[in-house]
Amino acid sequence: ELISSLRSKLRTLWEERELVLSEARECAEQGEELEATVRELCKPNEFERYMMFIGDLEKVVSLLLCLSSRLARVQNAMRRIDGNTDAEEKQSLNERHKLLSRQREDAKDLKENLDRRERVVSGILAKYLTDQQLQDYRRFVQLKTSLLIEQKDLEEQIKFLEEQLGSLEKSIP
Question: Structural domain boundaries of the chain?
Fold first, then answer.
């Protein structure tokens, strides 16, 4: 029953992932249309700023999500430490925790810098785009970010359930 339930949950998550990927493709198409508009209306250096921001948006959000996920896994492993855990493993977990925490703080700084750059890009675009186009741009940035987060979350859930299912199937003769 448990294996059947896990498989069912996995199928549901795979379907959700397909929907999110479909939404991400639509978002990418919107991004391409927006890019063409910005290229047409803005000066080359302003267009370049826009493109750098959009490219960095995905990288910084993905980095933050990845580091947060890795940090959570290390924290979970640290919670499982007991009297039987050897000192070397404890030290390794503590060092990884410190490193990932520092890296996540650095990534948060990158995100703050990215937010400032977004305000600059938004100000540039406000000179050229109609109010509707500017709203479309802001919606695009928000949607791109939320889809990245949703995609990462689904990938984590799928990975977790696949590991559980694999362990369960190995444990049953």
Answer: 1-171
Contact 17, 158 (CB under 8 A): yes
What is the distance between the alpha carbons of residues 106 and 19, in angstroms, rounded to a whole number?
32
Q: What is the pLDDT of residues 30-72, one digit of tens each?
A: 999 999 999 999 999 999 999 999 999 999 999 999 999 999 9
Burial of 57 (0-12, 13-18, 19+ CB in 10 A): buried
Amino acid letter at 31? Answer: G
User: What is the pTM (predicted TM-score) of this model?
Assistant: 0.82
pLDDT digits (tens, 9 = 90+) for 5-22: 999 999 999 999 999 999
18 in Cβ contact with 92 (< 8 Å): no
Distance of alpha carbon 93 from alpha carbon 149, whole angstroms: 26
**DSSP string for 130-153:** -HHHHHHHHHHHHHHHHHHHHHHH
From CA 50, how far away is CA 22, in angstroms rounded? 24
- Rounded CA-CA distance 68/76 in Å is 12
